[in-house]
Amino acid sequence: MPLGGRARVAWLVASLITIVGVGAASAVAVVIPRLMSFSNPDGTHTTLVSEPATRDNPFFQSLGTNGRTCVTCHAPEDGWSITPASVEALFVASSGRAPLFRTNDGSTSPAADVSTLSARRTAYSLLLSKGLIRVGRPVPSGAEFELVDVDDPYGFASADELSLFRRPLPSTNLAFLSTVMWDGRETAPGETIHADLLNQARGATIGHAEGRSPPLATLERIVRFESSLYTTQSRDDSAGALDTGGARGGPTWLALQRYHLGINSSQDRVRMPITLRVFTIFDAWASATGSMAAARQSVARGQAIFNLRRFSSRGSTCSSCHNAPNVGSNSTATLFDLGVSDEAFRAPDVPLYTFACRRGTLAGRTIRSTDPGLALTTGRCADIGKFKVPTLRGLAARAPYFHDGSAATLAAVIDFYDQRFAMGLTEVDKDDLVAFLRAL
Hints:
9 strands
């Protein structure tokens, strides 16, 4: 039975409790269910925990000094991320004092006033409205570009520490990663994804939780737990159960999905055939019958559009970038500039940065961006605005979308792509694509 409302909060509280046996010399950890289901605006999402796990895992423990745990920003009820609705509920329940609300990265500036309830609501406005966490990063030494102007509504950002507001990526479906973090900053050349995830967990403990570097054994337990999670939408309010009628939705099928770095690309060392038909899980619904036939056929049509509808001068499809089979992440660690952080799409509540390119292929050019993305790792002008391709499974649970939460709904995501790349989608096409994406 999926959990909703207060039941979600109760589960989360329970997940932090260790049951102690009467007279026992040591604590007996509560076993985490193999399947966890939660309601969301479009139906139900379910997580399969593929390895035995208990709630005494350090993922659920406070390892720093500010009360936060990994689950603070990676909640199962929100698809292992956070959503504005949950943040708002937590703010009201705690008067903005719960561990999520900390000025090191939860507020619009580390110097934000949090002395009163009203001040805290203002200070945590981006966290409340879009579920955004502030990431502070400097312009790297030796970069091809120079920061020549900052328009920061909160009066803090500088070349020493840009304020970048980003959505917490889901800590599930990690078996299909090729890049760690939106800007790839934890993806070290020559290292394995496992090693990258260890570094991410270490950095999160030091930065987000304001603690010290945990022992390697602790980090290993965190990463092993995260890596055991598979999350998808399992039931759609219109199409019903997503693993019936020949469909292969749901987390159990996802856990069986074959994946390796470079799969379905020219970099594939296993030399499997390359195909644009990245998603096949709803093929059977193209000829669905019965009371849910219309909704299921819409999902199947959306899948076909995603796979095969060509746009742009290069003849790209959605599956060209989201190339990992039946997952929709990118298997080649390629980051892309969709234009989301361009000045033209800037919201007035986030900073705008002006960069002058001094060297490199874009020397002499001026670029204005709300978030340079990959460029703060590589130092290259050509990488300004580039971000990773996130997994598409479990999307319905974790709105809003894009790295900056600028698309409130899946319909807004489709509208952005349609306008940005002149896809020429009809309203029926858009509805079908939304039906498909929310069923993932």
